[in-house]
Write a structure and sequence with these properties.
Helices cover 28% and strands 16% of the residues. It is an alpha/beta fold and 435 residues long. The chain is elongated and about 70 Å long.
Amino acid sequence: MAVNSTSSTAHCHDTARHINEKLGRPVPTSAGVLHVLSVDITSYHFPLRASTRGSSYLSFKLTIPVAARDSLFMWLLHTETYTLHYFSSPEAAPPYAILSHCWDHNEITFADMRRPELIELKRGWRKIRGACEVAQQQHGLDWLWDDTCCIDKSNSVELSEAINSMFDLYRSAQLCLAYLGDVPGGEEAAAEGSFFRRSRWFRRGWTLQELIASDASIVFLSSDWVQIGTTEEEGLAKVVEEITGIDYQLLMTPLEEYRIVEVRARSIAERMSWAAGRETTRPEDRAYSLMGIFDVNMPIIYGEGGEKAFHRLQLEIIRRSSDLSIFAWGRRIGSPMSLDDVEAKGFEIVSSSTRHGLLAGSPDHFQAAKDIVTIASVAHLTNSLGIPPVRKPHFYETNHGIRIQLPVRPFLLDDSGILFESAIPWEIASIYIEL
């Protein structure tokens, strides 16, 4: 709630002081704005009065949480008592592990944790208990974070904040436990056709950021909670690279070198390729699960559809990055061909009528972009095209799509149109323009 009228500033500041005194919180420094936070399990009511324009008064009745929450709060599960505790931020929390897994039926929810007499009846309880035992007994960690029971998904504000900050939750963890419920213990993970290679965990959208976000080691666990190995082991890290396409050296980057710095140094196209072929239950989550990897935030709008969510994600990336490899999607032309051949072989023709123009419609369009590397200068590219050197192009969104100036030259001409070639600073650069 915000009261912006100048005449109400003093009254609103007094109201804010009154609330914060009751909650034991400091008085906000910006007078005139009263922040009403999400309601907790236990709450109480008291009347408020604020002045509006003129001398009239309005009465409000607000539900104020007993334990008020700051921005980027988190809940952690105690690994011995199985109780949830609130912390104001990952930085304020004690050392904790995170549980990375594929959701199944009857998972334990935040609401279930208020009914301890029922949670043991749900199938998901065995997973929670197993993770707590491994974290506490094998790694000495008293706290665990799990996305099934540590987020109140009935609260849209909390859910949106959790999704936008989830990457930071993973980064701050001391340990990531990757539970592969479809992998039996005792098998050779590196073997061709192993259950490990075929695990659902490697195909899910949300597990991608869990794999690369944490600066700590990832411990893979079988269905019976036997350790398969860790990403600190070169042999297993190379197997994970074969499965996911993520450079094994990136997975093995030690804590002191900050893996996230290495991750975000990779081209946009390469990072997008990691998400190709992955699945999420809700189509929008394919985009939302990538926000932390590209260091962007955006509103969570379930119901907008996967394409719209991914389009918004790319626009947010463009606003923060000048990496043109975001346009390096689609299949590649290995040798000259006619435009008819281009279409016949499934290559995409970019035109003004294309729904998203130069932007991709899905992470799947970056399937072949694993080896795209952003380069600092376009000089050698323009030289190879036989055109004068140009500055690195800048680009931005308009109401007609992406506006960008690029040097182009005719590449192929036949009865169906002209194929133009353009110099863009990534490894392979071609833009197809339909006449």
